[in-house]
Design a protein that fits this description.
The chain is an alpha+beta fold. It has a single domain, classed as Jelly Rolls (Sandwich). The chain is about 15% helix and about 30% strand. The protein contains 6 helices and 22 strands. The longest helix has 14 residues. The N and C termini lie far apart (about 60 Å). The protein binds fe (ii) ion (FE2) (2 copies).
Length: about 350
């Protein structure tokens, strides 16, 4: 028996013992994943508003899903993950999921809670409200509403059709195998009177009689568009960030990231503005809330218009450009930067000449 046959026999024997020799693994594919630069399976991609909104509107006009708003949801699946057999792996990036949901007038999305964190960013319509931990939060275009880990939440619509984007970290929790979900007993949680709404709170003020909770992170539940936009406008005469223009993060009351696993951002690219190139090892999912522009990702051009969503995979060189010379462009975004930072793994690099 030559050495090759001997190794083969040993491999067979080891497999039965649930053991594998590293000599069998030195393939080119393996080497590609261990490099001085990180390697990601996430692909850059743009989802067009007309396609997404068209699909959700069509389904909304059919009556089969009336009253089942939880199912009238579109998942934005990264092209790299389209063929994953398990639905839980068909996600927008390896750590994050973005979905689009339509809630019709008269509908209720029943209350529940889960340990994955989520938010909604309202993109079309208004007049609905979300109840988070008993607090009634009105939903209007451009508002960001958080439903942090383990907060009871449900949605109600008594006005016009409303469309929002949900951002979730459940791919991350799925890979950690710790996902939990539970319905609210009875389906609809009672709404607290204004005087009873103490914790979790709305805004940055904390009633002095309420003790700070150390067993869960602090957070705001709602960021109103009119406040967000006023802040962007106030900063728009300044230099901004070389890589992101006038960019803000929705911070929690301690000044930290939006939630422990997700950072939400909003940035204004002023008319004609083009940012410098950089890269970082967190991934970002964008939504073009206003205007139109182009993002170059690893030298490839990705045009976006109002309503489109797109992904910039981790460690890819990228910069943004507002294509209009007379109008601002506004990008909403979500990223997994807090996870990388918490694990002390975050890296960021400016491009050449930046
Ligand atoms: Fe939920
Ligand atoms: Fe970036």
């Amino acid at each position: 028996m030559n050495e090759e046959q001997q190794l083969h026999e040993l491999d067979e024997k080891l497999r039965k013992l649930s053991v594998e020799g590293l000599w069998a693994q030195a393939s080119a594919a393996d080497l590609a994943t261990y490099n001085k630069d990180p390697h990601t399976s996430v692909l850059p991609h743009v989802w067009k508003w007309d396609d997404l909104y068209g699909a959700i509107k069509t389904v909304g006009e059919m009556h089969g899903l009336d009253g089942k708003a939880e199912r009238r949801v579109l998942r934005l699946i990264n092209p790299a993950y389209l063929k994953m057999e398990n639905r839980r792996q068909r996600t927008t990036t390896h750590t994050m999921l973005m979905t689009m949901q339509l809630l019709k007038p008269g509908e209720v999305a029943h209350a529940h809670r889960h340990n994955f964190a989520a938010f909604r960013f309202i993109v079309r319509g208004g007049g609905a409200y979300t109840v988070v931990e008993g607090e009634k939060l009105p939903m209007e275009e451009g508002d960001l509403i958080l439903t942090p880990s383990m907060t009871w939440h449900g949605h109600h619509n008594e006005a016009e059709p409303i469309v929002w984007l949900d951002g979730l970290d459940n791919p991350l929790l799925f890979s950690l195998q710790v996902i939990t979900w539970e319905p609210f007993p009875g389906g609809v949680q009672p709404v607290k009177k204004v005087g009873e709404t103490t914790a979790p709170r709305v805004g940055t003020a904390r009633p002095v009689w309420e003790k700070k909770s150390y067993d869960r992170p602090s957070y705001n539940l709602i960021y109103k568009w009119k406040d967000t936009y006023a802040t962007l406008k106030n900063l728009s005469d300044g230099p901004g960030s070389p890589f992101d223009g006038v960019a803000l993060e929705y911070v929690n009351p301690d000044g930290g990231h939006t939630m422990p696993t997700l950072a939400c951002g909003i940035q204004m690219l002023r008319p004609g503005e083009a940012t410098k190139t950089h890269r970082h090892n967190c991934s970002t999912i964008y939504h073009a809330f206003r205007g139109s522009g182009t993002t170059f990702i690893d030298g490839k051009r990705f045009d976006w218009n109002q309503g489109d969503c797109f992904v910039v995979p981790l460690w890819s060189w990228h910069n943004h450009q507002n294509r209009a010379n007379d109008k601002e462009a506004i990008l909403f975004s979500m990223s997994d930067q807090p996870v990388l930072e918490a694990l002390k793994l975050y890296r960021e690099e400016p491009g050449e000449g930046a």
